[in-house]
Design brief:
Elements lengths: L25 H17 L3 E2 L5 E3 H8 L4 H6 L9 E3 L4 H10 L9 E10 L11 E10 L4 H18 L4 E7 L6 H12 L8 H9 L13 H5 L10 H16 L4 E3 L11 E10 L9 E9 L3 H4 L7 E7 H10 L12 E5 L2 H16 L4 E3 L6 H11 L3 E5 L1 H6 L1 E6 L5 E5 L3 H10 L1
Parallel strand pairs: 1-4, 6-7, 11-12, 11-13
Antiparallel strand pairs: 2-3, 4-5, 5-10, 6-8, 8-9, 9-10, 13-14, 14-15
């Protein structure tokens, strides 16, 4: 009696909204992270790493209970400690600043970080459930020039990466003194309109009215366009702060526009808020914008998290979004490894000698590649063509016996045989020519 065939199991897939980062994408990731870290260090920022999970109270206190992240996007871990996967980076950095006594250091303290963050939202272009950010945080300075330093570092990162068509949008969200007056004006304006807006805006009307200005639904855009603006309600201190921010932007000749309806989704923001966009078709009538980074000032956050009152400002760029723009704009990103020399071995006894040759050349400083698992000449040549090497070294049984190596220039086909002891010198001459 034959056994029943075992049912074929379906293949396992990555979780929704958490794609693999494949080898052909590595050069983009390496470039973005390398440029970002170098630029941050040049401006005096120090690296910090915080855990990828934190107490849920950290975000309940900092983000506000009525934000989308708290209401429906946080990943809660099954633990007795009330832990969640981090949905953003600022709160964790502020917690680390307080816990580790950085208030005793010379102020301001400037941090940069890079890592994974998690939000349970519907995956779409530019939005993932596991995403990566590079962030800057400056704690312990209220001077508006610090706002500009953060904005400028992000802008310089994008310029260094070769991204075109950048524009900065700025606004002020005021402070605890002037913002209530604006909220009152906003509620009064929206009251007769709310019945015609999307369901999210209806929910936000009482709970978080500033988020009405952040709605992306088309039905809500006319209301946003004519809404009252925060800059008209700023107190004298916030007005002065914002004016200085604009003057510094002018001094650096940075391309910016004042967007009076720009807000940030988290409760901790005060005064300056900003986003840096890339415009997809700046010369057409159908320009589309993608936000590459965003941030602002959060002078009250540390006190809300149990620390002392401390002025601060920061922001973060989305690494996946930046990479998408680099690909769309066909930015030139060099391969991480571009070998100059490829070793071909022919025969079992030559493979051992070829392995030794590979290591000797690598240690001598040559960029060298091989395909030792292949024995066929044509197969190895295909690898050499894929790497686009300048020179191929051929090692057969005769060459092993004679202690020689065949040097072949790939673009001309010219070959010569040299002794093993003179190989390094001859290779350097060939590669220089």
């Amino acid at each position: 009696m034959s056994r029943p065939k075992k049912e074929q199991l379906p293949p396992l897939l990555s979780p929704k909204g958490a794609p693999d980062i494949l080898p052909n994408q590595e050069k983009y990731w390496e470039r973005v992270e390398s440029v970002s870290k170098t630029m941050a260090r040049e401006h005096g920022f120090l690296k910090i790493e915080t855990p990828i999970f934190e107490s849920s109270d950290l975000y309940l206190r900092s983000l506000g209970e009525t934000t989308d992240v708290i209401e429906k996007e946080m990943y809660y871990l099954k633990s007795k400690d009330g832990l969640v996967l981090r949905p953003e980076g600022t709160a964790g950095v502020v917690r680390a600043y307080t816990q580790n006594g950085f208030f005793e250091s010379p102020q301001p303290v400037k941090f940069f970080y890079s890592g994974s963050f998690f939000r349970h939202e519907q995956p779409q272009a530019g939005r993932l459930r596991q995403f990566h950010q590079f962030g800057l945080e400056t704690l312990g300075a209220s001077d508006p020039i610090i706002d500009i330093e953060v904005i400028n570092v992000f802008f310089e990162i994008f310029l260094k990466l070769g991204i075109k068509n950048l524009v900065i949008e700025v606004n002020s969200m005021g402070c605890r003194l002037c913002r209530p007056k604006y909220k009152t004006a906003l509620l009064r304006y929206y009251r007769p309109l709310i019945k015609n807006l999307c369901q999210n805006c209806k929910n936000r009307y009482e709970a978080n009215p500033l988020r009405l200005l952040d709605c992306k639904e088309e039905i809500c855009q006319p209301a946003i366009l004519n809404a009252p603006v925060m800059v008209d309600k700023l107190c004298e201190e916030c007005k002065k702060h914002f004016q200085e921010v604009l003057e510094y932007l002018d001094e650096l000749v940075l391309p910016y526009v004042l967007n009076p309806h720009l807000v940030r989704g988290f409760d901790y923001y005060t005064k300056t808020v900003f986003e840096i966009f890339v415009e997809s078709n700046p010369e057409s009538n159908q320009t589309r914008k993608m936000a590459l980074c965003a941030g602002g000032r959060y002078d009250n956050l540390m006190k809300e998290l149990g620390g002392r009152s401390m002025a601060a400002v920061g922001g973060a760029l989305g690494i996946e979004r930046v990479i998408d723009v680099l690909k769309n704009q066909k930015a030139k990103i060099n391969e991480l490894f571009e070998p100059e020399v490829f070793i071909i071995q022919l025969g079992l006894t030559t493979k051992r000698k070829a392995l030794r040759l590979f290591e000797d050349l690598r240690k001598a400083g040559f960029k060298v590649a091989q395909a030792f698992s292949k024995d066929n000449l044509d197969s190895q040549l295909r690898f050499a063509d894929r790497y686009k090497v300048k020179i191929t070294l051929i090692l057969g049984q005769k060459e092993v016996f004679d202690e020689t190596v065949i040097i072949k220039e790939m673009h001309t086909g010219v070959q010569e045989t040299v002794s093993r002891e003179k190989l390094v010198e001859r290779l350097r001459e060939r590669l220089r020519s």
